[in-house]
Q: What sequence folds into this?
């Protein structure tokens, strides 16, 4: 057992909330049992992000992800990482009003072992979040650059560039906290604004492209491990050159097959 595994602490929403101003939280996405199992001991939270619709299913945006697909991947993640605190992204269209949101959240809770759901939106979604939290659903909010708004906003836009945007983001964060969310993702927001948002609420903020002053960070696994190599967003730090390693390994395999070098005597029955 590694030292980090010995330090591993199974999280719950109380511990997540209590970590504010004490220690930074680490969140990573996972979409399957294999990688979830590898990440589990190092992450406070694993997010089954609807980003899987892009990085896993090859679509151009997250909008066509559906609930069945998210439930399938969440079950895989929960199976691979039984001790992890797992959050499932509610896909586009599954929380368009409070009754639809509750019906779909209950479906998620009854069909998976997910610990919480995440929904995108600010003040406009506060009454939906309140309805969910009052019905015992643990909710993580998500403000700033919200991938599910890509078509309605005409692209992925960094937020917090004007005073008006800054004020709206702070209002959004406060509304989400008052609605009972236990944590808040802040994506694609100017660092100084993300800092002010984090200081203005008492639940932890988890940043992605939001600078260092949020209460934690989240990265999409295929970005941070370099498996997605078409382009690197500015905010991503690559901890592995996954794409090159995989390509080199698979080309060695092909060469071995072509030379008749694989399998050898030790690798046959
Ligand atoms: O879908 C996702 O992976 C996300 C993260 C980028 C926060 O929402």
A:
């Amino acid at each position: 057992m590694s030292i980090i595994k010995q330090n591993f602490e199974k999280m719950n929403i109380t511990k997540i909330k209590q970590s504010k101003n004490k220690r930074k939280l680490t969140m990573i996405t996972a979409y399957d049992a294999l990688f979830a199992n590898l990440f589990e001991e190092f992450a406070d939270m694993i997010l089954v992000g609807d980003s899987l619709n892009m990085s896993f299913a090859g679509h151009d945006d997250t909008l066509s992800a559906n609930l069945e697909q998210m439930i399938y991947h969440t079950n895989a993640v929960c199976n691979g990482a039984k001790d992890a605190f797992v959050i499932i992204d509610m896909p586009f269209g599954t929380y368009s009003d409070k009754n639809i949101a509750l019906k779909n959240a209950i479906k998620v809770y009854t069909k998976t072992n997910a610990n919480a759901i995440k929904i995108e939106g600010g003040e406009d979604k506060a009454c939906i979040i309140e309805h969910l939290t009052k019905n015992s659903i643990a909710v993580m909010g998500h403000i700033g650059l919200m991938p599910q708004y890509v078509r309605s906003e005409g692209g992925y836009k960094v937020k917090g560039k004007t005073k008006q945007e800054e004020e709206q983001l702070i209002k959004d964060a406060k509304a989400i906290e008052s609605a009972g969310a236990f944590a808040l993702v802040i994506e694609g927001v100017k660092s100084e604004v993300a800092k002010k948002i984090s200081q203005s609420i008492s639940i932890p903020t988890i940043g992605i492209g939001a600078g260092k002053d949020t209460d934690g960070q989240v990265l999409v696994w295929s970005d941070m491990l370099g498996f997605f190599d078409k382009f690197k967003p500015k905010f991503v730090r690559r901890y592995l050159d996954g794409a090159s390693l995989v390509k080199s390994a698979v080309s060695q395999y092909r060469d071995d097959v072509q030379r008749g070098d694989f399998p050898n005597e030790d690798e046959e029955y």
The two ends are 34 Å apart (CA to CA). The pocket of 3-methyl-2-oxobutanoic acid is lined by residues 29, 47, 49-51, 89, 185, 187, 208, 218, 220 (CB under 6 Å). The CA atoms of residues 4 and 41 lie 7 Å apart.
